[in-house]
Amino acid sequence: SAMAISLMYQIGGGPVFEVRQPDLCLGQDIYEGGLQAYVHAVELESAGKGFMELPMFTQNMIIDSMSYPLSVLEGLHRSKCDIEMLCRGKTALEVHILDPSGSVFANTSKFEEWLHRAGTQVNELHICFVGPEVPNGEARMKTSFDDQLCESCRKRG
To answer: Which residues have C-beta within 8 Å of that of residue 140, sequence separation ≥ 6?
Structure first.
């Protein structure tokens, strides 16, 4: 599904999805409950339908897209250093993604999930892609997502 999602986004046809509860604190119960607990708690939806109502292929594409940012959040949680703790006192979050490829570049708005969980004082998200697979032949690409942010994140400033 990683190859399919990458190809679909390249031609502008991947599923657009929305986290309806972006400010929800992800508690221990959500981490223990896994993906199903997460999609239910944050009210993940696409095309006006709840995640569980979507066709299996669409669910798989969204899961594949969200697996990267959610894996990072899970790792931080398990290390007892949640992203909100790391961002305390900061207004911007900059993340460097080393050696990205394929579906990492598909629907880059998926990384907004880090902004959702970083704390309400964080109002900027910068992603720096580093490696030989970075588009345009660059070894390093820094991008901002201001124009793609959800309403809740745009209200932060």
So the answer is: 128, 129, 130, 134
pLDDT in tens, 36-60: 999 999 999 998 999 999 999 889 8
Distance CA 63, CA 69 (A): 11
Q: Pull the structure tokens for residue 105.
A: 């570049």
3-class DSSP state of 115 = helix
- Cβ burial of 156 (10 Å; 0-12, 13-18, 19+) is middle
Whether the pTM exceeds 0.90: the reply is no
**DSSP code per residue over 34-88:** HHHHHHHHTTEEETTEEGGGS-HHHHHHHHHHHHHHHHHHHHHHHTT--HHHHTT
Separation of alpha carbons 67 and 110, rounded Å: 9
pLDDT 10s digits, 67-87: 889 999 999 999 999 999 999
**Do 106 and 65 form a contact (C-beta atoms < 8 A)?**
yes
